[in-house]
Amino acid sequence: MKIKKVFPFWVWIVYAALFALSIPWYLPKNVEMNLVMGLPLWLISCILAVFLTACFTIFIINIFWR
Amino acid sequence: MLLLIALGLYANKKRTSNSLKDFYLAGGGLGPFVLLLTLYATQYSSNTMLIVPAEVVNQGMGMILVLGYMTAIVVLYLTFAPQLFKISKQHDFITPGDWFDKRFKMPSLTLVANLILVIVSVNFLLSQLIARGHIATGITDGQIPYWAGVVFLAFIVIIYETLGGMRAVAWTDVIQGLMLLIGLGGLFFIVVPDVDELTEISNWLIENEPEKIGVPSFDFRMYWASTVLMIGLGGAVYPQVIQRIYAAKTVKVLKQSLGAMVFMPLITVLILFLLGVISIPHFIEVSDASQDTALPQMLQVWGQESLLAFVLMIVVVLGLLAVIMSSADSILLSLSSIISKDILGKSILKNSSDQQLAKTGKMISWVIMFLIVLVALQPKITLWGLIELKMQIMVQIAPLFILGVHSKRVISAGMMAGLIIGFLFSITTFFMGYKTLAGIQSGLIGLLLNVIACFVFSHFFRNKLNAGYED
Q: Where are the domains of chain A?
């Protein structure tokens, strides 16, 4: 049974980075609350990271999965 | 409901043979539209629909983690789905056990893995029935009793599932998936606030419930990361999802469906999340924070605002019921295929024909449903409790697919040792009350032990046993 790799290794590195970005590690607990579009900035940045993950997924599916 | 049963009858007529493949995989020919909606309706169960608003009310905005894990599930399909799809077509796979057999060639490993899948699926089905009961009683303010919701759902699903198999389940999933999307659109239309209202709610939260809107604590962030990984990995290897990968007509169909699926969390989870946020002030006086019924209760409140809101509320409720049915039917179908083909078909029904096995599978569906209804009538655990238990166990199966596809070093004995260690660790810690250890989901720690044991045993037994991979 021969199994070929479909996605190059760097794809998983990018996913790991996007995953790290989707959780607000970079903010201290008691940071001042900034609201953007009525929601806290940390929440908007998490949603944005997930959106980027979805866009990246479309990209790699179309480029590498033949 | 009648339409769903009619579809079951139609699917029964459309079958091309009485084979197991036709019944459990619709002959392996699902197109992009049907595959997308059946994946969507299956993946977004009542758990997501009820848990997101309920846990946002309970735990605050940190529950945006659900958006992360629903996306992670689709990303983690990509770690094995392209290869598994190809192999499944070459070897006519029907159940997840077919892959375990082909890759590891160890009947006892397939049996243990299948038993774990059965435990997880029974748990999942149970949560769907409990959710149905909560919705029935929540939206009617107790006028429809909990038990009636449970029994009615079970009855409808079992009828069309045994009539039409995967074909009926996939077709009804299309209707149910569309109903869910329309329902969510309606819900968005009724209640989701504009920026000014959101700002007002956020300011109210900052003043009254700061812990629900502030940056989550370090411990919660650890919990967040480990939950996304654990549920992402566990959700990607649901047996009903694996069978949908097998059932895709071509690789192009699978690519298109997964490409669309990755955006579904941003539509579905975000709407539910915002609904949870605006519900927080409403539940502030409620001391008991077990809010599995938060969404149904809020629907009842919102439905009283105007006639249009009432009509849209009905659409939402239908969408909710639809999504519960679509998850329940898919699990039931998968469960009966595992028990009839992989467990009984390899033991006491070894010499039975495909037709007999498919018939046995249908009978098993009825028995399972009856037993689970009995348990669902007396729920002893919240939905979030059930989902955590399910995923702590389910994630232990992930290496069989991901390492099975990617690692030549892994052999069957290593996989068996890892699976048993991971499984025992997860259930022991869960029932001892340690759902997390140092903030990390104990199922994920179990997975780590699972993988380490797998490689260690594979290394030491490699020369003694056939690796199986090189076939």
A: 11-64
Q: Which CATH number fits domain B2-388: 3.10.490.10, 3.40.1160.10, 1.20.1730.10, 3.40.50.150?
A: 1.20.1730.10
Q: Which residue of B has its CA nearest to A58?
A: B259
Chain A positions in Cβ-Cβ contact with residue B87 (cut-off 8 Å): 1, 3
Q: What is the DSSP letter of B396?
A: G
In whole angstroms, what is the distance from residue B174 CA to residue B36 CA? 8
Q: Please report the number of interchain residue pairs, chain A to chain B, with beta-carbon separation below 8 angstroms.
A: 110
List the pLDDT tens digit at each of the 471 positions of chain B.
Answer: 677 777 777 777 777 666 777 777 777 678 888 888 888 888 887 677 878 888 888 888 999 999 999 999 999 999 999 999 999 999 989 899 999 999 999 999 999 999 999 888 888 888 888 887 887 777 677 788 888 888 887 888 888 778 777 777 888 788 878 887 887 787 777 777 788 888 988 998 888 888 888 899 888 999 999 999 999 999 999 988 999 899 899 999 999 999 999 999 998 899 889 888 888 877 766 555 455 677 777 777 777 877 877 887 787 777 777 777 777 888 888 888 888 888 888 888 888 888 888 888 888 888 888 888 888 887 766 667 777 788 899 999 999 999 999 988 899 999 999 999 999 999 999 888 888 898 899 999 999 999 999 999 999 887 665 544 444
Distances (CA, A) of A51 to B51, B55, B230: 22, 22, 20
Min CA distance, A45 vs chain B (Å)?
Answer: 11
Judged by CB atoms closer than 8 Å, whether chains meet at A29 and B75 is answered as no
- The residue type found at B355 is Q
Inter-chain contact A53–B75, Cβ cutoff 8 Å?
A: yes
Check CB contact under 8 Å for A1 and B201: no
DSSP notation for B68-81: HHHHHHHHHHTTTH
Cβ atoms B358, B18 nearer than 8 A: yes
Neighbours of B155 (CB within 10 A): 12
Domain ranges in chain B are 2-388
Residue B454: which of B423, B405, B401, B412 has the closest Cα? B412
- Taking contacts as CB-CB distances below 8 angstroms, the residues of chain A near B105 are none
Nearest in space to B163 (alpha carbons), one of B9, B284, B50:
B9
